[in-house]
Protein 1
Amino acid sequence: DIQMTQSPSTLSASVGDRVTITCRASQSISSWLAWYQQKPGKAPKLLIYKASSLESGVPSRFSGSGSGTEFTLTISSLQPDDFATYYCQQYNSYSRLTFGGGTKVEIK
Amino acid sequence: EVQLVESGGGLVQPGGSLRLSCAASGFTFSRYWMTWVRQAPGKGLEWVANIKQDGSEKYYVDSVKGRFTISRDNAKNSLYLQMNSLRAEDTAVYYCASVYGMDAWGQGTTVTVSS
């Protein structure tokens, strides 16, 4: 089974900061990786699909990169609405979906 | 507008059963693999099960194999999760989702397993 290791688990940052979250897959998943944002009591919201494609309507300060086993989500200038929990998700196979453990972005 | 609406959650005793439903609208339901994802209180997202467009392939996380059954009715644009032999650790918000080819999530339905 493919494991997804996400780091850090918590991140303290200020408005305007550049923020980077990393996700590592235990084996190659090509570019079949998505990033989600989740706020308390809400369903996850898709930000990035296929590792680097920006979902329609998502601000351009969000970007994704990587392929194979190493991936990153970058927020170029953190905004107040961005304080949330972020998850990576591999969808390389129909037989199993795997999420990273999550990164909570907190106000510094 | 693409919409997924879950129902059927509630409080159930350990060992009991529940059937979750998910009503889909705004897209061609029969074209997509469908997924159940859950989130225990204060925890991360956990995949539960996937089902192919025609229902011919089904996959489950190990912890629910033999207890949960995913199914669909394309004529009714509906997805289901039959949950038997429920345990306290199954307590979670359960989301119906499409994540392959098109991304959509329901608002979630809460399942609480407690005596």
Protein 2
Amino acid sequence: QVRLQESGPGLVKPSETLSLTCIVSGDSISGYYWNWIRQPPGKGLEWIGYIYYSGSTNYNRSLKSRVTMSLDASKTQFSLKLSSVTAADTAVYYCARDVYDSSGYYRWLDLWGQGTLVTVSS
Amino acid sequence: QSALTQPPSVSGSPGQSVTISCTGISSDVGTYNRVSWYQQPPGKAPKLMIYGVTNRPSGVPDRFSGSKSDNTASLTISGLQAEDEADYYCSSYTSTYTWVFGGGTKLTVL
């Protein structure tokens, strides 16, 4: 059974860098896109970006200047760094697996981690 | 990329059917059949319910169905059950290789 588990500090100070890791168990990272998505308390989902197993990335335009994603295939994990955080970055952060069909046309997020709450506060 | 538009809330009684709409634009919902739907019970992670507009993953009851007309996708839940009470989000993979989500719809089973 494939599982995703987010880990990282639950509290980050304003202006510092938020760092999270998603550990993939039960499967390899190869062949998939790996996403980060966040949800501020009481609000909807916001896509942050994804990293392909090859290392290529694509980020939400509104966050692009502050986001860096990386992956470690040997450890079957991938990471998110979000710099210069403010209170507006307080949210539950989810990692999610992004799959595509044989034609490459269809994409969907088939597997999600349980989420981790990150609070930005001094 | 603007968020997709969903109604904030819908409700229905057990056994009834409800439909949740999701309106986008031509560069996402309108042109591509890449709409997916996610169920999020309170305090839990989202779960995939529909992908490719109409396809159900293994294990999702056939009470859940999806459709699309022009720039609007829809999720229909028939034979409502108490366990269906949750937030529902639509999403689309866009022409610019990004993901966009709807604002979410809270389903209340009366």
